[in-house]
Amino acid sequence: MTYTLITGAGSGLGRAFAVECARMGRNLVLFSLPGSGLQSLASDLRTENRIQVQCFEFDLRQAEILKEHILFVTEHFPIDFLINNAGIGGTSSLTETPLERIDDIIQLNVRSTSLLTRMMIPHLLREPNSYILNVSSMAAFTPIAYKTVYPASKAFISSFSLGLREEFAGTGLSISVLYPGPIMTNSNTSRRIIHQGLKGKMGLLATPEIARIAIRKTLKGHPVIIPGLMNKLNHSLLNLLPLGLKLRVVSNEVKKEMQWSAT
Ligand SMILES: NC(=O)c1ccc[n+]([C@@H]2O[C@H](COP(=O)([O-])OP(=O)(O)OC[C@H]3O[C@@H](n4cnc5c(N)ncnc54)[C@H](OP(=O)(O)O)[C@@H]3O)[C@@H](O)[C@H]2O)c1
Hints:
Layout: E1 3-6, H1 12-23, E2 27-32, H2 38-49, E3 53-57, H3 63-76, E4 79-84, H4 99-124, E5 130-135, H5 149-167, E6 173-178, H6 187-195, H7 198-202, H8 207-219, E7 224-225, H9 229-240, H10 243-257
Parallel strand pairs: 1-2, 1-4, 2-3, 4-5, 5-6, 6-7
NADP nicotinamide-adenine-dinucleotide phosphate binds at residues 8-14, 32-33, 36, 59-61, 85-89, 108, 135, 137, 180, 182-183, 185-186, 189.
């Protein structure tokens, strides 16, 4: 009777993770911001899959509230799979980005992921086999102008996850990191993909497909998960370029897309 804990489960990729885990018969502990429709998702998942679903709506940036929730959850539900999915980004010149937005990206993507993982590991280690899936991004592979803080936060997730994987090698805990390309989840990314035309659509995978690939590979113990052939190819080709050139190529693309993005 173990559970999978998913952050940002109310929408986008997090919701797709919840649906996929439910289909696999996994019980769920779901975290989301208040008002993201989590209760109705949970009710559908319970009815359709005959699983247990527990919901908690709060802001992950509030460390004390996060701590209280983890204490409660770990006391009541044995967790064997943690999916750190919640994360935010944006595209704008640094000097035009509000200070609060920069703080929000760092608090959610970096701070809450690190604290939650730190608090959960002792509990995950109680299970004979347990898993962590951390959601990074293809953006982690290159510094990117006009995004700067977001790719840096996702590079942190990448380094943090692979370091932890090594630290817990030989235990029952396996840690994986997912590097999705653009996904049509929120309106901002969808707008950018639509305006890219054929180029944008070529590497595009449906959100449920990304969730399915990521969960299956995590449960098989893969360290690094890049979903989709085009994204793998893109990553390999960009790796052939010297860093300065790679930075310029990727940043120029992002600069062209700035008109379609809201911060
Ligand atoms: N979309 C893309 O193109 C793309 C590409 C690569 C990587 N990613 C990564 O994939 C993950 C999911 O992205 P997405 O596009 O599905 O998300 P999204 O639609 O942009 O929504 C943001 C996600 O973060 C959660 N969230 C935001 N602020 C929060 C807060 N203060 N406390 C708790 N949760 C908060 C939301 O949770 P609720 O809605 O449940 O409240 C939601 O799941 C993120 O880590 C993102 O960086 C996305």
